[in-house]
Amino acid sequence: MSTTYPPANTKPDKLLTGFISVRAPELKHLYGAIQGATSVDELTNKFGRPTEDGLETDHVEETVRFLNTVDLVESPSGDIRNTVERINEHQFKGLPFEPRLLYHCNQQKGRQTHFAAIYPALLTEGDRTVSAKRDDLRTILKRKTDYEFAWKDEKIDMWLTLCEQLGLVTETEDSIVLSPCRALFHDALILSPTDTDKEPNYDDVEVKNGEFRRALDWINDNLFAVYEERAGTSRVHPAIADVLRNMEDDGVISLSSPGDSQNAVEIPPEDLDDDVRGKRRDATRVSIHSRPDKTAYQYPLTQPLTQ
What we know:
- The protein has 307 residues and is an alpha+beta fold.
- The protein folds into 3 domains: 16-94; 98-177; 183-295, no CATH class.
- 35% of the residues lie in helices and 14% in strands.
- The protein has 10 helices and 14 strands.
- It has helices at residues 24-33, 40-47, 58-69, 97-106, 114-123, 134-144, 153-166, 182-191, 212-222, 238-249, and strands at 38-39, 49-51, 54-56, 73-74, 83-86, 129-131, 170-171, 175-177, 207-211, 234-235, 253-256, 265-267, 281-283, 285-288.
- It has a 3-stranded antiparallel β-sheet with strand order 1-5-4. The protein has a 3-stranded antiparallel β-sheet with strand order 6-8-7, covered by helices on one side.
- α1 (24-33) packs across α3.
- The radius of gyration is 20 Å and the shape is globular.
- The two termini are 34 Å apart.
- Residues 254-307 are annotated as: Disordered.
């Protein structure tokens, strides 16, 4: 299956992080409510917020515009305020909404690449967590990205809220944990190509002895960063290594490194004080098994405590 898709028509120029009112639950529910050509009035009536002065619908209209900006919907009439329909929905058929949205955000061009640039910028710090203080985050983004606009708190807040709801990061009282949730990582591995003769797809529930580096390279380039800044051997970031260890302990993935294998991926140890060459693990092959029916393998939007 081709990984390219036609972009939506008449997309707005507004920055993705400029959609400060957009939230993942509304994106997911509204996207699910679009069946064929759908009237925007129908969506605003369904998802508008009742007030004393009538329905408040600005957030619905912003959600539709965001979906249009990331090539998930467009208007058959040419007016996104009038009617809307899904596009590119047959690509990666069956893929949950959360990784689908991340994939589309990561395919954007020009200055819209700023959305995908935030996570790898944070990974360059080399730690499992970064400070949640917006001034500290702004310093990292100014140092590691090059965009001609200010990283205002509203833009950072929008990215952080959306990505936390999608399962990419977790914000605590004073830090941001950079480890993706296991549900997202499992779906990313299933989606990624693990053989030189294959394209990304979401058909195979299980994979045996796939090419681990090929899978991680595709995830790194299309969904979310997985590597530290690197030269030579691909080295997994400590936050990503934690998720891999958890999934391996759960029997959800198996990593191996046959003696004659090439293209090894380095995985740092859990204790980073022991992170020296002799204590890093090499992996070249991955087997992926079915995702267990347990809370740790659910997305934040579907976990019982967040419903």
